[in-house]
Structure formats: structure tokens, C-alpha cells
Records
---
Amino acid sequence: MYGQLIVEGLSIGACYAVFGIAVVIIYKTSEVINFAQGEMAMISTFVAYHILNVYGWPFWYAFIGALFFAVLLGVFIEVCFLRPAKDPTVLGLIVITLGAEMLLMGLASWKWGAEQKDFALPFSFHKTHELFKGVVINDWSIAVFVMAAVLMIFLYIFFRYTKLGVAMRATQQNEHAARIMGIKVERVFSFAWGFSSLIGALAGMFFAARSTLDPAYMMEPFLRAFAAAVLGGLMSIPGVVIGGGILGILENFVGFHWPAWKPIVAFLVIVAVLCIRPSGLFARHYEKKV
Amino acid sequence: MLKVNNIETWYDLIRALHGISFEVKEGTIVALLGSNGAGKTTTLKTIMRLLYDLREEQPEKGTIEFMGVRIDRKDTEEIVRMGISYVPEGREVFPELTVAENILMGAYTRKDRKGVKEDMERLMARFPILAERRNQEAGYLSGGEQQMLAIARALMSRPKLLMLDEPSLGLSPLLTKQIFDIIKELNEKDGVTILLVEQNVNMALKYAHFAYLMENGRIVRADRPEVLREDEDVKEFYLGIATEQSVKGFKRYRRKVRFR
């Protein structure tokens, strides 16, 4: 039984982790926590839904279309909402993302309505494979694991070996010096937002397949993913993946033994981490102003 | 090579540079000297156009020409590409990037991968300490090593003009001398023109070919170092050689300066 709980926990944890990575990428480049992350993913998923059900195109078209839309949306929000801020403080920018969140949620309710909809991925929950004796894994989980693994490897290579990836890290560490090197800092920020929005949309579609699709469905996954990111230190991508795994398993165990307490696990984790080790489990960076 | 003509820079309502002009001739080391708040760093930042955030039109007045082209309205990126590199005050290396990554960031504006690799190996050979610490994070280097890293990083864009902002800041006299020797070597061997900002007037006058003295956002003296060394005011206020011991002398702490 516990084996099954762990497998389930890890799979939902991997999904939190992927979404947490989206949060971490923006935090890494600009120290802004993007509260609109969930709603950006929600709108992108709605776009996929729209392409599927209104235009009736095949799933993969909708999938690619939604990811493309997500990138544009991320860049749009950075350019139109965050960049015009005059003398921005980090707190001010965070409040702007909160505003963007409400705006997007209203927009989705207006366009697609607030009722719950079905959104299915080609990876079903019912097709299961037996891993060990008594432990099964379904297609959805396998897809999540594969996605998380591919993403991790890709990001590792990107941040370590590509010029743009290193420039993103450089910008986060010292924006002034990055400017002196001739790095176009604004462009780096736009890129980070587009990229993070894309990853968020990926995770968003998986969450939608797991629950239902409505304008508020990303609220909870966002909080969970945020908890995973805080647990991992908000700065490191391996950290958020491990944080996601721990949170997923923890949640599943609590849900199994005391079902009523399951929803608050994420909050307890955030509070506990902030009390005991505010920099997270894997933080290893230089203390900056803040 | 670099011609600064009567530029004015404002920080909100405060005028930091009151119309300064100077020239850097190709192949020379030019020093910009002065005490705190004289406007030396502001001058360099204005040239690099890093004050763009404050107001669109920086510098407010005047022109900056580099190799005959006006650069006072160009983007920093373009200025770097044209061949000006800036080593900022206090090093400002990227603390969590490795030494090698830091150096590569200096070549951000360059497209030729092979040339970048060659240049990097050349620099590593020139700064053996950096080669030794190649894969270490730059934040763990000592001050002198960080200064060398900052210079190496700035050289990666193959600059024609290298601007150094207080390379001696926080370094021991021995290390300062070492850094200055590197600067001299760069100038003589590689033919890089150098614009040097310093508070350490004594040291800078030893190495520079020409020097400008700044005070309160104006240039008050411009001459060859040999001449400046003999200047009464410079001797007394910058080199710390007291000439007059009389009571009258103490009272004359403010002397008339001719602004140019």
C-alpha cells in the first residue's frame, strides 16, 4: 500500500516540481515571485481547450498552439505590465503580478465561463502498468515523469552550457555588471517570462487533466508548487524538484491517514520552512540585499 | 580616439558634471584623477551610457565621439561592440559563476566562437592564477584575483579602449603595483588605449601619459604627469607633500582654481 502511495505522491510531486520550476526561473532572474503564474498556465490551457473543442483540431496541434500562446503571454505580461513600472521595487513588481493574476482570471471567466470543463490528455489514468507486485503506475504519471526528467536535463544543459543561459544567471547575480558586458537585460527578462510561462503551461495541462478545467483550477496547484519551491530554496532547480517530490509524498501520506488534513499540508510546509530554514533546503547562494 | 565635448550629466535636479571636455589619444594611458564625489565615475558611466535609466537624454548636453562616431545616444551593447570596455568600480564580478563563465560573459557581444576560445586561452596563459581557479566560483576569489578577473573579462570583447574605474580600490600597495604593471603591459604590448580613473594620484601619475584633474564635476587641470607633479596644489592636496608651514599657509586651504 505504501509503495502505491509513494508512486502516486512522486508523480503528483513531479507535476508540482515542473510548475515550481516555472516559478523559480522568474525568481532566479528578477527576484520576483510571480503570483500570476497559475493563471497564465490556466489561460494557456483554456487556449488548448478552445482549439480542441471549438476548432476541433487534433490534440497535438492544440498542445503546440497552447505552448506558443503561453510564450507570447509571458512576454506580453513582462513587456506591458512589469517593464513600464517606474523605479520598481521587488514588492511593487510582486503586487503587479497579483493584479495580472486577477485580470487573467476575470478574462477567462468572461471568455469561457466559470463552469467546470473536461480537459483530457492522451495519457489516461486508467491504463496502468504493474511496477512491482501490488504497485501500479498509470500513463499520466509516466508522462509526468518523462516530462520532468527531460525538462531537468534540458535546463541543466541550458543554464550551464549555453550563452543565453549563463547570461540569465549573470543578470540575476549582478544586473549592473551584466549591462556593462553588453547583455540586453530587458531582453533577458522577457525571455525568462516567456520561457517560464511555457513550462507553466505544460504543467497546467497536466493539472487540468487530473482535475477539471475552470478559471480557478490553478489556485491550489500554484500554492503547492510554491511550497515545493520554498522547500527547495526558490533558487535551485534540483531543489524544487526534490521539494516537489517530498511535498507530493507527504501530502499523499497525510491524505491516506487523515484525509481531512490533506489540503493544509502545503501551508504547513511553507510555514515550517520559513520558521526553521528560510533559505530552503538547498539554498547555497550569496546573501543579497532583499 | 575618444573625444568628450562639454558634457553635462544630471542626477535628478543635481548637476554632477558641469560641462567637461577631454580627449584620449590612441595608444596612451590617460588618467582621470580627483577626490570622492568629483564626478569621475559619473563620467565613465555617462560614456558607457549606463545612466540611461535616470533620464532618456544622458548626457544632457555635449557630445561624446569615439573613433569619429558619436556614441552619446547609442545603447551600451552597441558601445561595447564598437570597442569600449569598462571595468567597474569594486570589480563587480558575477559571484556564482565560475571564473571561466565570467570571462566568457565578457565576450557576450561577440559572435565568432573560435576567436572567443582562442582569446580565452590567451588570457588564461597571461593570468595564471585565473587558469588555476578556472572552475571555481568567482565569489571565492581574493580581491586582487577578482580585479584581474574583471580586467580579463573586459578584455574579452577585444576593446580598443579600456576604461578602468579605481583598479586599486581595496588592494594592498603590492597588489596595486602588480595591477598597474598589467595595465602598462596591456598598453605597451597589446596597444590598448586606457582611460584610468583613480584616487591614488601618486600611483596613477607614475603610469599615465596624460592626466586630468577633476573637482566638483569640472576639470581643473590638464597636463602631463611630470608637470602636475610639480604643481603646488597637486603636491599639497593630492600627494600630501606640505610645502608651507606658516599659519598663513593653514588658512589658505581653499585656493582659487581656474575652471576650464
Note: Residues 12-215 of chain A form one domain.
---
Amino acid sequence: MNWSEFWHMGGYALYVWASFGVTALLMIAEPLLVGGRCRNVRRRIARLRRLQQEENP
Amino acid sequence: MSSRLVNWFHFSSPATFYPLAGRLVPIFAVIAVILIAVGLYLSFFVAPTDYKQGEGYRIIFVHVPAAWMSMFIYLVMAFWAALGLIFNTRLSMMMAQALAPTGALFTFLALWTGAFWGKPMWGAWWVWDARLTSELILFFLYMGYIALQGAIDDTRRADRAGAILLLVGVVNIPIIYFSVKWWNTLHQGASVSLRGDVSMATTMLVTMLIMALGFWAYSIAVALKRVRCIILERERDAGWVGKLPEIRA
Amino acid sequence: MFEAMTVLIRRDLLLALRRRSDVLTTLFFFVIVVSLFPLGIGPELDTLRLIAPGVFWVAALLASMLALEKLFAGDFEDGTLEQMLLAPEPVFVLVLGKVLAHWLITGLPLVLLSPLLGLQYDLPGETLRVMVLSLLLGTPALSLIGAIGAALTLGLRGGGVLISLLVLPLYIPVLIFGAGAVEANASGLGAAGHLYMLGAILLLALVAAPLATAAALRISAE
């Protein structure tokens, strides 16, 4: 089986690749989004802590 | 025995669970990547072409595991909700909350891949098949839970209201599934089973199982990562948060 | 114990009688929705007979959902709810009383009016009878299940839309068996099976839903 045949998927290319593609896309995007959210939270808390320390050292 | 019990409750405190979750996330992430890579290899290069449905049947290798996970995650959320209501542990409620978006994601994926399976096999993007319809309703249930969590500002109320909704939902799911099935057989719609006419060779079953295990590890990794965010958000004023190296830096 | 329930029902009915517009709004919503469908679909009686069960049941579902928002809201705002939760009577019974009164106000008029509207859809007498029976069994279950959603969203911003998101998926079995009963009768099959299922759902809702509602009220009123 060569590669062009592989991508062609016996005529089912649209269906197979749309299914696997969207699944892959979402399952890569979700961890990235969660990571971004965590980073934001950490940064916000660090800033809050710094502000508190500056106010009453 | 008793010391083990104490240990479990020891980890139900956010302060001790936060670092533990941090250590577990990479482990499950690695397991997920390996299993899904193996599963993908099996589903494209090892599993034979189906004699009836050609290459198109390979969609089941994501569809079925996604559908399994969507149902399983709802059950796990309900389990955490019940635990949270009984023992009044905040962490279990946070776990339920952390799992919800991942569960909704898998429900969406099951619907999406189901549509892309249905078009070539049944000639329609959407068929009111009992399984697909139940999956759609499950998606609504996830959306309801997420919306309720988003609408309540007070975290304690959000936790417990969400837990009640989850328990009501979990009682209802069998009733909904049964009624949809009844409705489907009465109307003699397309009750073509998604799996029934696939002759289930052992390689296919093994591939599906490996993919499902990969998705399972993925869900744990993502949920643990998300629960770490939720813990930080809620405990931002607690003393132990200030001592964390990632906050100090 | 049941004295408290009857007192509560009488009080709610009296309140509804003083403010009749609430009752009429739900009823007219039902009438309008049912009357809209022929305008959207066309006046062929064969088609209308075919879609009547679904239309009536979906309209009943939406009407019952529309009324839910007010189920506990008034008592919550003026503090009555807090007193009810503190009362020596079990909250289960009080919730049952509230829901029963709510059904008498918003559900029963709709059931009684439905045969009249059924004539618009040219339904035969036997089918009308089954429809009333199915609504009679189904709408109390809707009120009971809906009460959980109303209790969970008590006092939240955008509560009305949120209730629909929470409650509509849970309404689906009632819709399937309710509309199914009418349809089974219209197509000559017996409606008994569907009606038994509706009865079973009603019994289950009668036992389980007030428990969940009571727990939800405690959480929301805290």
C-alpha cells in the first residue's frame, strides 16, 4: 500500500480523515487550553501575593 | 485497613492532592500518548479492510472509544458527586467539575464521528438511531451541568447543586435510553446497529480497547491538570498556595 | 403532616386566584403554540392528524417549563421558603404540596382545554380521550421533574433559560410515552402500554423528585 492510496482510504477519505482529524484537533487543543488556564491562574495569584506583600511587608 | 482509610482522606485535602496530581499528570499523559499511538498504528496498518464497508469502517476506532468514554465519564462524575455529598469533601466536587468539559468533548466527538460514519454507510449525516439520539441527550445533560456551574458564583452552592443535577441525571439516563429505544423500534427508523454489521475480528476489538484505554488515560491526565487549576483558583488565599515554588517564582 | 400540605395547597391556589394573569399566561401560551403549527405547516387535515400528538405534547412541555420559574421564586423572595425549610414538617411533604398546587394552577387547565384544541386537528373522540388521559398522567410528572430544575436555579441570573437547559433533557421520556400513547391510539394500536409507562414514570417522579427538590432547595436557600 503506498501513501497516496493510504490517504485515499478506498474512497472514504473525507469521512475517515474528518473523523480522525477533528478528534486529533480537539484532543490536542484541550490540554493546551487547560495549560493556558493554569498558567493564567498561577500568574494572577503570584501578582496578588506580590501586591499584598508590598502593602504590608 | 484503618490506616489505609486515613490515607485516602489524607489525599482528599486540596493541599496534599495538588502536588500528587502534579506528579500523576505526566505519567498518565505519557501512557495516553503511547496507547493512542499504538492504537492509531493498529487501526490504520494492522486492522484489515472490512469486506463490506471498505476503509470507512476505521472510523469506529475513534467513534466507539469516544462514546464509551462519554458515558463512563458521566458515571464517574456522578460517583464523585455522590461521594462529595456524603462525605462533604470539596475535592470530589472539584473532580466532578474538572471532568465535565472532557466528558462533553468526548460526547461531541462521538456525535461528530457518528455523523461521518452515517453519511457513507446510511446515506444521511444524521439518523435518529437510538444510540445516536441517547448520545445527543447525554450531550445536553453535560451542557446543562456546565451551564449550571457557570451560573452560580458561590462555589459551595455550585458544587452541591451540580452534584444533585448529576445524580438526577444518572438516575434518568437508563430511563431515557430505554424510552428512546422504545420510540425507535416503534417508528421502525434506521435501527441499523453501528457495530452489529461489523464482523468483529479480534484485531478490531483489541484496537478499540487500546484506543479506549488511551482515551481513558488522556481523560485522567486532562482532568487532573484541570483540577489543579480549580484548586489554585479556589484556594488562592490559603497559606500553602503561597509556599508553592511556581507561585513564588 | 398532610394538614400542612393541604394548607399550603389552599394558600397557593388562593394566591393564584388573586393573580389570575399567571394562570392565563401559561394556558394561552399552550393555545397559541398549538394554533401556530397549522399556520406553519398547512391546513391539510391528514397532515395535522399525523403531527397532532407531537405538537400537543411539545406545547405542553414548553408551557409547563415556562411556568416553572415562578414555582419557588415568590416564596424565596419574601422569605416564606426559609420558614418552610425550618418548619417541623418534612420538606418532602411541603415540596409535594407546592408542586401539586402548581400543577393544579398551570397543568390541569391545559389538560382540560386540550380536547377542545384537538378538534382543530380533527382528532377522533377516542384519540381525544387518550390524549387527555396521557396529559393527565404526564403533566404532573413534568411539574415534579421540573421542580428540581426550579429549585436548583433559584435566584440565579438568567434562571429561566437555565431551567430549560436542565429540565428539557429530563422531560424526554415523558414526551416519548405521552406522544406515543396518542399516536398509538390514532394508528389503531393499543395505547395501554404507553399509558402504563407514563404511570410508572409518574410514580417514580412522585417518590424521587420531591427528595431531590428538597435537597436542592436547602442548597439554594442557604
Note: Chain C has a mean pLDDT of 89.
